[in-house]
Automatic annotation (TrEMBL):
Protein name: Outer membrane beta-barrel protein
Domain Outer membrane protein beta-barrel: 455-924
Organism: Alistipes shahii
Domain of life the protein comes from: Bacteria
Record-linked InterPro entries: Carb-bd-like_fold, OMP_b-brl_3
Pfam families in UniProt: OMP_b-brl_3
Entries under SUPFAM superfamilies matching the protein: Porins, Starch-binding domain-like
The keyword S-adenosyl-L-methionine belongs to this UniProt entry's keyword annotation: no
GO molecular function annotation: carbohydrate binding
Keywords tagged on the record: Signal
Record's signal peptide: 1-23
Length: 943
C-alpha cells in the first residue's frame, strides 16, 4: 500500500470451537505504548488454536480504544491486534469465564510504514462520546489544499449553506480549534481558513454558557458548537494558503490566510481583496441596514451574508490565542471589512385583495452602498488559585454605512386579463448615512468555598453601550399620467420630500449571583439571582420640504418622536442537576418580574408604566444509552422584548407605498421550545444515524397587522388617508404561532465505490398569525425535503462530491381576504470535482443546477451554472499551482433570482451578479512544520 495515503484498517477474524456449547464475551483496550493514548480503529483477530476450520469473527477498537467480541465459544485462542503504523501484537488466551477482560494491549509504534495489508475494512467515520458526535477526518478524503468547509460538507448530518452550518437541523453558532474560540462567532471564517489536511476530527456538541461553565450546572442557555481537533504533529508550525487571480474583463481576487501555531500560542491572519463579491468572513450589521428579511427576532445574530449585486471587497482579520503562564488563557480576534456594492434589481409583485382585483407592482432599483465594519472580540481566563478564578469577555463593533438608490415603479389594478387599469408611477430617490457602535464587557468571578462538600459562589457583572445615528433624505414623486413614462420630476402629480435625523443611544447593565452546592456524588443544586436594566432613547426628527420652504426649521409632528423607554428585569430561581453514570438531567425554574416604563416628550408628553410576571423554565437531558447511542432533550420557556422601532408611537410615511406605524402597547413575547435528538454511531461499520425534532409555540408573538386595498383607511389622528395602492403595517401581539420540524440523516460507506453516501429527509410545518384588513389570518406552511450526498473517499488525487436536494412547499392562508395559496417544487443538484489527470495536471470543476416550478401558477425558473479550471502543480513539493479557468461557462449567472411569498403577496426579484469571465490564478500552500518552522517560532518568541 502506498505509504503516503493514511488508511485506518479494520479487520476481524474469530474462530469458534464448534464442540463447545457455551460462549463468553472478550473485552479489550488498545493503547499506544509511548503516549498511553487510545488507538482508534485497530484490527483485532481472534483465531481458534484447536479448530482451524472454524470461521473467523470481527471487531475493531472504538474512539476510546476499546473493543468487544460478544459471543466467543469456550476454548483456546490467539488474539492478534494490528494497526497502521504499529507493530502487530499477539497474545494467547483461554476463554472459559463469562467475561474475559484484557486491560491494556500496548502497541509499539513501527519505525517504517506498512507496505502491504491483506484485509481492508471501513475507516472509523464517527463515534459518540457523551453528548458529542465526533467525525474522523481521515474517513472523508479531500484534495490537497482543500479547507475545512470542503471536509465538513462531506460529513453526514452537517450542511454548509446560506453562510452558515447546520448540524442535525441546528445552527452552529461558534467554532473552536482544539477547544479554543477561533474568530469569535463567525463560523464561516473559521472553516474557510483551516486546511483540511490539518484536521484529525470534527466534534459537534452543545456548549454551555459562560455562567454554566463556571458553576458546572447546565441551565439550558448554551448553543451548538463545532470543535476542530488538529493533528498532534501539526500544532507547531506555519501553514496557510496564498492566492491571486486576474480575470477578463477586469476581474480580480487576491488574498490568503497564514496560521502560525506554536502549541498553545496561535496567530492567524486572513486577508482578501476582490471585485467579484467574494467574502471570506461575515460582517456585523449592528445598524440593520442590510436586513432583507423583514421582522427580526431579538435573539437573531447580527452576522449577515453577502449583499445582493456585485461587491468590491477589502477585508483583513487576525485571531490570537495563548496561555499566559500556567494560570492565564487569552483569545482575541479583530476584523475589518470594506464592501462597495452596486446593484440593479428588478421585481414584480402581486397583491391579492378581498375582491377580484389584483394589484400589480413592478420596479427597477439602482443602488450603491458603501459599508465599513470593525469588530473585536476577546476572552481572558485567569486562575489565581484553586479557589479563585475570573473570566472576562469584551467585544466592540463599529459600522459606517452610506447608501444611495433610485427606484422607478408602476402600479396597476388587474380585474381580468383584458381589464388592467393604471394607478400611478413613482420615482424614489434615497440617500442614507448611518453609523453606530456597540461596546460590551462582562466579568465573571468564581470562588470555591472551603469544606467537605463541593460548593462555589459565582458573581458576574457586565454592561453594554450602543449608539446609532442616521441621516436620511428620501424623495418620492408620484405621476398619475399614464403617458409620463420618463417620470420627469418637473411634471409630477404629488411629491413627498423629507429629511430625517435619527439618534438612538442605549445601554444595558446586568449582574448575577449564584451559589452551587453538591448534594451528593450524583446531584448538584444551584440558586441564582439575576438583574438586568435596559435603557434606550429614541429621537427622530423629520422635516418636510416644500417649494416654499426648502430648509424648514420645525419638525413634522406626525413623523417625529422623542421618547425614552426602559426595562428592569429581576429573575430568581434554582437549578437541580442529576448525574447517573453518563446520563445528565438538569431542570431550571425562575420567577421573572419585568417592569416597563416609557416617557414621551414629543409630539406629546406622556408617561406609562407597566409590569409583567412570568415563570421561565429549562429542562436539559443527555442520556447515553450505551457507547454508540445518545438521546438529547431540551425544553424551555423564555421571554424577549420588542424592538425600539416597534415601540415608537409615530406613523412613518416616508414611503407612502409602505406606511409603517409603531405600537407602544406591545408586550414581551413568551416562547416555548421543545427539542429532541437521537444519535447512533456504528464505528465498526462506519454508519451514522441521527434524528432531530423541534417544536415552538408562542401565545403572544409580535406579528403584522396589515391594511391593503383600503384607500380611505385613516392612518393618523388628523384624518390622513392611506390612498390608492398603498399598504399600512402595524406590529401587534397575537396568539397562535407554532412550528414543528423534524429531520433524519443517515450516513454509510459505499465500499465498492470507495465513497461515503449520506441520506437526509425532513419535514416542517407551522402556522403564522397576522391581521389583514381587521380579519384574523393564519398562514399555514408545510415543507417536505429529501436529498443525498455522495462524497469520494479514494485519495487526494480523486476528489468529488455529488449532492441533490428536492423541496416541496405548500402554503395556505385562512383569511376571508382573497389571500394567496402557494405550492411549488424546487430542486438543487451540485457536483464538485478535483482530479489529478496526469502527473501534475489538475482539473477542478463544479456545476450547480437550480430548478423552481410553481404548482399553483405556471412560473418556471431554471438555470445551470458551471465553472472549470485547469492547472499544473509547481515546485518540487507541489505546493504551488498555476491555473486558467472559466467562471459561469454557460453565462447563466448574470443575475440571481429569489421568490418570496406572504399571506397576501407574491414577489419575484432578480439581482445583478458577476457572470462569465476567464481568469488566470496562482495558488501557494504554505506548510512549514517541525524543523522547518523553528525559525518562525524563534522569531515570534523574540529569539
Amino acid at each position: 500500500m502506498n505509504p503516503g495515503k493514511t488508511l485506518l484498517l479494520l479487520q476481524f477474524l474469530l474462530c469458534a470451537a464448534t464442540a463447545a456449547a457455551q460462549s463468553a464475551e472478550v473485552r479489550f483496550r488498545v493503547a499506544d505504548r509511548a503516549t498511553r493514548e487510545a488507538v482508534v480503529g485497530a484490527v483485532a483477530e481472534l483465531r481458534s488454536r484447536t479448530d482451524t476450520a472454524a470461521a473467523p469473527l470481527y471487531t475493531t477498537s472504538d474512539i476510546d480504544g476499546r473493543g468487544t467480541f460478544p459471543r466467543v465459544p469456550h476454548g483456546d485462542y490467539r488474539l492478534t491486534v494490528t494497526s497502521l503504523g504499529y507493530d502487530s501484537l499477539r497474545r494467547d488466551l483461554r476463554v472459559g469465564a463469562a467475561t474475559v477482560r484484557l486491560d491494556s494491549l500496548w502497541l509499539a509504534p513501527r519505525a517504517e510504514a506498512i507496505d502491504q495489508v491483506t484485509v481492508e475494512a471501513p475507516a472509523l467515520r464517527s463515534s459518540v462520546r457523551g453528548d458529542t458526535l465526533s467525525y474522523r477526518a481521515s474517513a472523508y478524503k479531500v484534495s490537497f489544499g482543500a479547507d475545512a468547509e470542503s471536509l465538513i460538507s462531506k460529513m453526514p448530518g452537517l450542511e454548509v449553506a446560506d453562510g452558515g452550518i447546520e448540524a442535525q437541523g441546528r445552527t452552529v453558532q461558534r467554532v473552536y480549534v482544539d477547544g479554543r474560540e477561533f474568530f469569535g462567532n463567525d463560523v464561516m471564517s473559521a472553516i474557510r481558513n483551516i486546511p483540511a489536511d490539518m484536521i484529525e476530527s470534527i466534534d459537534i456538541y452543545n456548549s454551555q454558557s459562560d455562567q454554566s461553565e463556571f458553576t458546572g450546572v447546565d441551565t439550558g442557555e448554551g448553543h451548538t458548537s463545532l470543535n476542530i481537533v488538529t493533528l498532534p504533529d501539526k500544532r507547531r508550525g506555519a501553514f496557510g494558503r496564498l492566492y491571486g487571480a486576474y480575470g477578463i474583463a477586469d476581474k480580480y481576487i487576491g488574498g490568503g490566510n497564514v496560521n502560525i501555531f506554536d502549541n498553545d500560542r496561535r496567530i492567524s491572519v486572513v486577508g482578501l481583496a476582490n471585485n467579484i463579491s467574494r467574502q471570506n468572513f461575515s460582517f456585523e450589521d449592528i445598524l440593520g441596514t442590510t436586513d432583507r428579511s423583514g421582522r427580526k427576532s431579538p435573539n437573531n445574530s447580527f452576522m449577515v451574508r453577502p449583499l445582493d449585486g456585485i461587491s468590491t471587497v477589502q477585508a483583513i482579520g487576525v485571531n490570537y490565542s495563548d496561555d499566559w503562564g500556567a494560570k492565564g488563557k487569552v483569545t482575541a480576534s479583530y476584523f475589518f471589512n470594506r464592501t462597495d456594492n452596486h446593484n440593479t434589481s428588478q421585481s414584480d409583485r402581486q397583491t391579492f385583495t378581498s375582491t377580484d382585483k389584483l394589484v400589480l407592482y413592478n420596479d427597477e432599483n439602482r443602488s450603491k452602498t458603501l459599508n465599513l465594519n470593525h469588530r473585536f472580540n476577546s476572552r481572558i481566563d485567569y486562575k489565581f488559585s484553586d479557589r479563585h478564578s475570573v473570566m472576562m469577555r469584551t467585544s466592540f463593533s463599529l459600522q459606517d454605512n452610506n447608501s444611495r438608490n433610485e427606484l422607478r415603479s408602476r402600479t396597476d389594478n388587474k380585474f381580468s386579463d383584458d381589464d388592467i387599469r393604471f394607478v400611478y408611477r413613482r420615482r424614489n430617490f434615497g440617500h442614507n448615512n448611518s453609523d453606530g457602535y456597540n461596546v460590551s464587557n462582562y466579568l465573571l468571578y468564581r470562588y470555591r468555598l472551603p469544606g467537605a462538600k463541593s460548593h462555589n459562589l459565582t458573581v458576574g457583572a457586565g454592561g453594554t453601550y450602543r449608539s446609532y445615528e442616521q441621516l436620511s433624505r428620501p424623495r418620492q414623486y408620484t405621476f398619475r399620467d399614464p403617458d409620463n413614462i420618463e417620470c420627469d420630476t418637473s411634471d409630477y402629480s404629488s411629491r413627498n420630500i423629507t429629511r430625517t435625523d435619527r439618534d438612538q443611544p442605549g445601554y444595558d447593565v446586568n449582574g448575577n449571583v449564584s451559589y452551587t452546592r453538591s448534594l451528593s456524588k450524583r446531584s448538584r443544586l444551584s440558586f441564582e439571582y439575576r438583574i438586568n436594566y435596559t435603557d434606550n432613547s429614541v429621537e427622530r426628527n423629520t422635516f418636510v420640504l416644500t417649494k416654499e420652504n426648502v430648509f424648514p426649521d420645525e419638525r413634522n409632528p406626525k413623523q417625529s418622536t422623542e421618547y425614552d423607554y426602559a426595562y428592569l428585569t429581576h429573575r430568581i430561581g434554582s437549578t437541580y442537576q442529576y448525574y447517573f453514570k453518563k446520563t445528565k438531567i438538569a431542570g431550571t425554574l425562575h420567577y421573572q418580574h419585568a417592569a416597563f416604563s416609557s416617557d414621551y416628550a414629543f409630539p406629546y408628553a406622556r408617561k406609562t408604566e407597566t409590569s409583567f410576571d412570568n415563570l421561565t423554565y429549562s429542562v436539559v437531558a443527555n442520556i447515553n444509552v450505551n457507547r454508540n447511542n445518545t438521546l438529547k432533550f431540551n425544553a424551555s420557556g423564555r421571554t424577549s422584548n420588542p424592538r425600539a422601532t416597534d415601540l415608537q408611537d409615530i406613523v412613518n410615511t416616508t414611503n407612502r407605498q409602505n406606511v409603517f406605524a409603531g405600537n407602544p402597547g406591545l408586550d414581551p413575547v413568551y416562547t416555548h421550545r421543545l427539542s429532541g435528538q437521537y444519535i447512533r454511531a456504528n464505528p465498526a461499520k462506519g454508519r451514522t444515524f441521527t434524528v432531530s425534532a423541534e417544536a415552538t409555540a408562542s401565545p403572544n408573538t409580535i406579528t403584522d397587522s396589515l391594511v391593503i386595498d383600503s384607500p380611505d383607511f385613516v392612518i393618523d389622528d388628523e384624518g390622513t388617508k392611506l390612498g390608492e395602492g398603498n399598504q399600512y403595517t402595524k406590529p401587534v401581539n397575537l396568539a397562535g404561532l407554532w412550528s414543528l420540524r423534524a429531520s433524519v440523516n443517515y450516513g454509510m460507506p459505499v465500499r465498492w465505490l470507495r465513497s461515503n453516501l449520506n441520506f437526509r429527509a425532513g419535514i416542517s410545518t407551522g402556522r403564522i398569525p397576522s391581521i389583514i384588513n381587521g380579519e384574523r389570518n393564519f398562514l399555514n406552511n408545510n415543507v417536505y425535503n429529501a436529498g443525498l450526498t455522495l462524497g469520494s473517499n479514494i485519495s487526494e488525487a480523486v476528489d468529488f462530491r455529488l449532492s441533490y436536494t428536492g423541496r416541496y412547499n405548500v402554503s395556505r392562508s385562512s383569511s376571508e381576504v382573497r389571500t394567496l395559496d402557494n405550492t411549488y417544487f424546487s430542486q438543487t443538484a451540485k457536483a464538485e470535482t478535483t482530479f489529478v489527470l496526469w502527473k501534475r495536471l489538475v482539473l477542478r470543476a463544479n456545476a450547480d443546477y437550480n430548478y423552481y416550478r410553481g404548482i399553483t401558477d405556471t412560473f418556471l425558473e431554471e438555470r445551470l451554472i458551471c465553472n472549470a479550471m485547469l492547472g499544473v502543480k509547481l515546485f518540487r513539493n507541489c505546493l504551488g499551482e498555476a491555473s486558467v479557468g472559466v467562471n459561469d461557462i454557460l453565462d447563466q449567472n448574470g443575475t440571481t433570482f429569489r421568490r418570496t411569498v406572504s399571506g397576501t403577496t407574491l414577489r419575484n426579484v432578480t439581482n445583478l451578479a458577476v457572470g462569465r469571465y476567464v481568469s488566470f490564478q496562482f495558488t501557494y500552500n504554505l506548510r512549514l512544520f517541525r524543523r522547518q518552522s523553528n525559525a518562525v517560532m524563534d522569531a515570534l518568541q523574540g529569539k
